[in-house]
Amino acid sequence: MEILDSYATTVAKNVIVAALYVTINYINGTLVHTFFKHEIFTENPRYILFIHMVLNDMIQLTMARYIAVCKPLHHTQICTVRRTYIFIGLIWVFCAISILPDLFILLATEPLYYFLSTIICSRDLVFRHRYLIEKKNISHLVYLSFVWLTLFYTYFRIMFAAKATGADARKARNTILLHGLQLVLCMFTFIVPLFESLLLSLFPLLKNDIRFTIYVFVQILPRFISPVVYGLRDQMFRKYLETHFLYMAHKKNETAQFQPC
């Protein structure tokens, strides 16, 4: 039997999610606005990767930070704007390759009435063919292994560099560690079904609360860390953000002063 939340609980959960999303989108929107407004950011591969990460991927910035710290003499030759856009294009190609076959198989195997029916918005319920489920598990395992190996390698190399050099490398190490925390939260996506099933078997009456909590920690919280790691902690970004907010506050005060009584 489906257990429904009370009206007050439903409203509270929706308010929490809406407030979190408004906050995240405001911060990210301000960072994107700052990026496109100042040419100094659009010509720097690091900031190009950051803006792309706001929308899509994480591992690129870790690689860029690794090159900057561990191979500083080759950084300008390796991390060019052109190569950055090529790398971003490859990321999108790999993402498309992983999902487009699923759509074609879905269209070829499911009857017409399936697309007119109402189902729960869950990947395993939408792409229910056994081959697609196995493909998803294998592709997730491959991507997960590649990302983890890459990040572990860069983490340890940056940590070793931080011990041998000064504050800049230590700051890069702290940035990578924060990035790793974000990655761990994102990786929970791969174990959510198992973890959720375990919790539901232990606390069946708290099904809705368990799913809501997992949704907040797995889907929303990691997106709070991105602007902090590579946006608000960055001196250049922080400088232009402070200028932007001071200008907006000054403009608001001028508007208020000239309003007729």
Automatic annotation (TrEMBL):
Is Iron among the key words of this record?
Answer: no
- GO molecular function per UniProt: G protein-coupled receptor activity; odorant binding; olfactory receptor activity
This protein's UniProt keywords:
Membrane, Transmembrane, Transmembrane helix
Source domain of life: Eukaryota
Its transmembrane ranges are 7-27, 85-108, 138-156, 176-200, 212-232
Identify the residues that the record assigns to the G-protein coupled receptors family 1 profile domain, covering every copy: 58-230
Annotated signal peptide: none
What is one cellular component GO term in this UniProt entry? membrane
Q: Give the subcellular location.
A: Membrane
InterPro entries linked to this entry? GPCR1_Superfamily_Member, GPCR_Rhodpsn, GPCR_Rhodpsn_7TM
SUPFAM superfamilies according to UniProt:
Family A G protein-coupled receptor-like (SSF81321)
Does this entry carry the keyword Membrane? Answer: yes
What name does this protein carry? G-protein coupled receptors family 1 profile domain-containing protein
Give the organism the record lists: Astyanax mexicanus
